[in-house]
Amino acid sequence: MPGFEDHDERAARPGGFTLPHAPRDERRFPTATGKANFTAAPVTWPRVPQGRLLLRTLRSHDRYDNTVHGLDDRYRGISNGRRAVLVNEEDATALGLDDGSYADLTSEWTDGSTRTARGFRVVHHPTARGCAAAYYPETNVPVPPDATADVGSTPASKSPVIRVTPA
After folding, report:
1. Tens digit of pLDDT for each residue in 14-53?
2. Model-level pTM?
3. Which of 67, 64, 68, 85 is nearest to 76 (CA)?
4. Cβ distance 146 to 110 under 8 Å?
5. What is the C-alpha to C-alpha distance for residues 82 and 24, in angstroms, rounded to an integer?
6. Which of the four pLDDT bands, split at 50, 70 and 90, describes residue 65?
7. pLDDT score of 66 more than 80
8. What is the pLDDT of residues 87-107, one digit of tens each?
9. Between β-strands 114-124 and 131-135, what pairing exists: parallel, antiparallel or unpaired?
10. pLDDT at site 41
């Protein structure tokens, strides 16, 4: 592949190396017009009923590909475990969730089914109001295998609507 010549030798140098990137390096765009092409899609978002939160999944600093390398996340100050749900303090208070308490995460689907991941430590965190965040793959359970994005068929793990209830 272009840019990977002498890869091992270049990677061993302090600072590594930079792969070629036509727009950055040459102000050239490999498109039919030779220019940057932009598209816009309509903005949509899920409806989140009262008392529910929109779950976003995230990675810790020590998770690469599908392998978890540790139980601490220095980015968010989480230690000794990955079964944690980060909730805005105001949302947590409204839901009766104390910092450090344990909760279950239950997703609700349009077909009426629910799926529950149990035993997540509640962490008051400055997440956006109406949202919660938890580590992936620990949050596989709330997402059915057949729940996929409308375009691309990727798992719908980035925005299930959930109830967070005391365990």
Report:
1. 988 888 898 999 999 989 999 999 999 888 888 899 999 9
2. 0.73
3. 85
4. no
5. 38
6. low
7. no
8. 999 999 999 999 999 999 999
9. unpaired
10. 86
- For residues 161 and 108, the answer to whether their CB atoms sit within 8 Å is yes
Beta-strand relationship, 53-58 and 161-166: antiparallel
Three-class SS of the chain: CCCCCCHHHHHHCCCCCCCCCHHHHHCCCCCCCCCCCCCCCCCCCCCCCCCCEEEEEECCCCEECCEECCCCECCCCECCCCCEEEECHHHHHHCCCCCCCEEEEEEECCCCCEEEEEEEEEEECCCCCCEEEEECCCCCCCCCCCCECCCCCCECCCCCEEEEEEC
Name the token pair of 3: 């840019």
CA angle 165, 150, 83 (to 5 degrees): 30
Close Cβ partners of 9 (under 8 Å, ≥ 6 residues apart): none
